[in-house]
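re: that complex we talked abt at group meeting.

here r the seqs, copy pasted straight from the sheet so there may be weird spacing, ignore it
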Amino acid sequence: MVLAELVEIKERELAARKKALITCCLAAGCMSSDGKLVKEALDRAVKDAGLESEVEVRGVGCLRLCCEGPLVMIDPPGALYQKVTLADAESLVGTLKGGTTSVQRGDPASAFFAKQMSIVLANSGIVDPERIESYIARDGYFALRNVLRELSPAEVVSEITRSGLRGRGGAGYPTGLKWATVAKTESPKKFIICNADEGDPGAFMDRSVLESDPHRVIEGMIIAAYAVGADQGYIYVRAEYPLAIARLQVAIRQAKQHGILGSGIFESPFHFNIDIRIGAGAFVCGEETALMASVEGRRGQPRPRPPFPAESGLFGKPTLINNVETFANVPPIILNGAEWFAGIGTEKSKGTKVFALAGKVKNTGLIEVPMGIPLREIVEHMGGGAPSGARIKAVQTGGPSGGCIPADHLDTPVDYESLTKLGSIMGSGGMIVMDEKDNMVDVARFFMEFCMDESCGKCIPCRAGTVQMHNLLEKIIARKATARDLQKLEELCDLVKHTSLCGLGMTAPNPVLSTLRFFRQEYLDLLAVETQRKTSPPAAPPAPANPA
Amino acid sequence: MAAKVFTIDGQQITATEGQTVLDAAQDAGIAIPTLCHLDGVMDVGACRLCLVEIAGLNKLVPACVTKVTDGMVVTTNSERLQRYRRMIVELLFTERNHICAVCVSNGHCELQSLAMTLGMDHVRYDYTFPKCAVDPTHRLFGIDHNRCVLCGRCVRVCWYIEGAGTKNFSGRGTQSRIVSDLNAPWGNSRTCTSCGKCVQACPTGALFSKGAAVAEMEKDRGKLEYIVTAREKKQWIV
Amino acid sequence: MSITAAPPKAASVAKPPEHPSGDKRFKILEVFIKRQQQRQDSLIEVLHKAQELFGYLDDDLLLFVAHGLRLPPSRVYGVATFYHYFKLKPQGAHTCVVCMGTACYVKGASRVVQALEQAAGVKAGETTPDGTLSLLTARCIGACGLAPAVVYDDAVAARQTPESALERVKGWLDHGPR
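got the structure back, here u go
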């Protein structure tokens, strides 16, 4: 592959454009409500109407408003149709000839769409994820070509550093710094791993990115590999995402056929390959040392750090691990420049963040917003507030490692530091809205059960501590707990948070701690009656833990 | 080899290059509680009992896998660390069915002595009373899962010292169990060499020699160290 | 404290890589293992393939994998039991997976599970004694926009209620195993 070929593919693809484009969402959400059949029906309807030469029906990735799927977009005139059924195909195609349709129209100008800012999802819903040409037509692999032909590895690292990009997997570690650390190590063998083990319940951003625009992630990985000097990459995907796996396999095959993976990429001496590794249902494998153990075909148990993966990672070699969304941010940063990216977001949190908005809101689906946007805008304006007049009570971010942000903090800007200050975390991007009917102690119990089941069992505080915390929460919910039990719960939170071996254990108490902080009364209300009278208001000061 | 000078509980100590905090502390006669650590076997930092505080670091680190650096200031025995250690041992007691009075290792058990040194005299959490099996099928040894603390010492000696790979963890979380081969009765294992290293490595009465009555099972760690030293330092084998 | 022996299991007998049963699926698995160059780090991929071919992983199959990759059996067993995706027991003719992700949970997935448990007479994670239905729960299938979601034999159904779920499995339960 050389630049001329890339340009040729792009031009050919653009020239082949037909007068009208019908895009059908074929991401998992719409697929599960017959999206695939709708696409086939539209194909037939176009054929029957004799419009094949003028109209293209394209299966695309996520069109975002998952709750209204299957979604179909017809352009021109840029009309979005919701809850499309097989029977609607004919009338939808008819609109291209001046006909009318009774299919429910979505409003692309509504807040849900208008307040989005697309960097990671820029191609999502536009490119055909199963055709590399479709990606190239949107300037795909041009960033890679520029990097390989015009920049030194150090310049790439510096570009990423200056952009201010931070890891999108949850903790927000500066990406440039991570790359620089791996680049600095002297080793003839280094690895790149893309963490696509999106384990947080209530999160489906990475899945959508992989299903909608797999080439973007691959391009980001190749650029990273060049920057740090790696020649082998792995994408670790959950087995629960068969569609994402299938599309990645297609994308990798196409990239190889076009000489974008393999040896002598863009006629440079650089060579790189990517293999897919499929997870097998273990949340802890989102933790980087556990993930590496799993890629090595072992039990996915974390190990103490240091040594950090950047020094001694996969198979003992320096390894760069980034999340799907982080890699997807790389090509646009290279194409548009670090300054462009650094101009978006807040002082410490640059760029955009993709969230999976779900729970008790009218509009659920995938959103990409600039960092720093107030939570209220996401939940109330874009999400449309709670359905059927209920009041929003809290927003859960960060999954089992995060916390519940109460409604009176909805004006908090969404950035790494602000969410951490509220006892939650940015996390990978799950955002679940809760209303007044949701009991916060029950929510805490739900997450504790999750952590208990997902604990790998290696270290004692997490293995046995989560069991005891779960017991105590059950006891509270059954109204059998005393103020002493609540105190024990708080002590265990402190223990597990500070003594666990890995991130799963260290953050397992967060949902309890954050609900205790903002919704303590709900715990007190559930304490057994006789102790409730004695202890409320404020619970008795904690006695020293020393039993002796 | 460059010597490292560091402070531990107010004492200035010299450590050798690459030495762990635990190792250096032990050399200086400072006791740090451990459970999953076994001299001569790779450390995994799993039991969290040897966590220590290091000045300037806001998280606790396991002494067994933390290397000494110059000028490091370590605290091994703060009130907070003592409290955490007691709680960890309490949790261990809730997890399985530890009844010292009927145990072969009574009086020679590391879990028991940890509870005593740490002043853990009762357990404030609910016992979980899991149903655990006893596997008496091996000709010489037995395993009683009721007394297992999942420290993994048996697994590590089996893999790294004996090299047989018979023992491993199965399951995860509280469902974790030590198994032989494909969860076969130990006596049917085709890979076990009956070397007994796992029994010597076990800190409690979970692995025992058959025929030992209550309080009779004493473990001999010296044998393991003897083998490891021979192998690593090539002192009497070439 | 109960003193009971572990249940007896089939003795682990060393076998040559070729499987004596003549079952063609072993041949396919063997080819797959060779294609991985017998690399030990491909254990999880090989177990995926084995489960895809056989539906579940019994001792015989695990041992075949262990020999194929030259790994101690305990290593294969440790990995197969660590990951929840791997099944060591046969599954029902039909499966019903209720998503218990946060979005599904707050929208009533636990009521759906309860209704299904009652109808099938088994707990989540179990298979009906006649082998008709495996009732499972998932951590999150990533269809949060469709909560609560249930996967019936690989087809995702959106916005389920106890009633709609019962309607869906009624036919399976009435007709018994295929």
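couple things i noticed - Residues 536-548 of chain A have pLDDT under 50 and may be disordered. Chain A has four domains: 18-108, 139-342, 352-435, 440-535.
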